[in-house]
């Protein structure tokens, strides 16, 4: 059977605007540190190439949404800049996640 997926919209709260590659690298490191290699493989975290205004979308297995939220919450700095990574929303449909990415929540 095919794995069910969820799209998680996140926001990096900081004074500085970050590049997509910087944020992607830090998220990958945090996921590996929190989930381990086996958990990371099972979770199937994939970065969707939509990133603007310090907001982005991650695709994840529906069974690992809460674990992904925790690993994002553990990110404290990017390139020695203090940050907070908030989850804006979780959706099962990419279109809805894209709309929430543009709106910034709600």
List keywords for this structure.
106 residues, alpha+beta, two-stranded antiparallel ribbon, 41% helix
Describe it.
With 106 residues, the chain is α+β, with helices and mostly antiparallel strands. The protein is built from three helices and six strands. It has helices at 20-43, 65-73, 94-103; strands at 5-13, 46-52, 55-61, 77-78, 81-82, 84-91. The model has no long low-confidence stretch (mean pLDDT 90).
Distance between the termini: 33 Å
**Strand order in space, largest sheet:** 2-3-1-6
Number of helices: 3
**SS content category:** alpha+beta
Low-confidence stretches: none
| Strand element count | 6
* Strand percentage: 25-35%
Q: What is the general shape?
A: globular
**Which percent bin holds the helix content?**
40-55%
Q: How is the main sheet built?
A: 4 strands, antiparallel
Rg on CA atoms, Å: 13 Å
Q: What's the rounded overall pLDDT mean?
A: 90
- Element-by-element helix/strand order: EHEEHEEEH
Explain briefly what this protein structure is.
With 106 residues, the chain is an alpha+beta fold.
How are the elements arranged and paired?
Layout: E1 5-13, H1 20-43, E2 46-52, E3 55-61, H2 65-73, E4 77-78, E5 81-82, E6 84-91, H3 94-103
Antiparallel strand pairs: 1-3, 1-6, 2-3, 4-5
Helix pairs in contact: 1-2
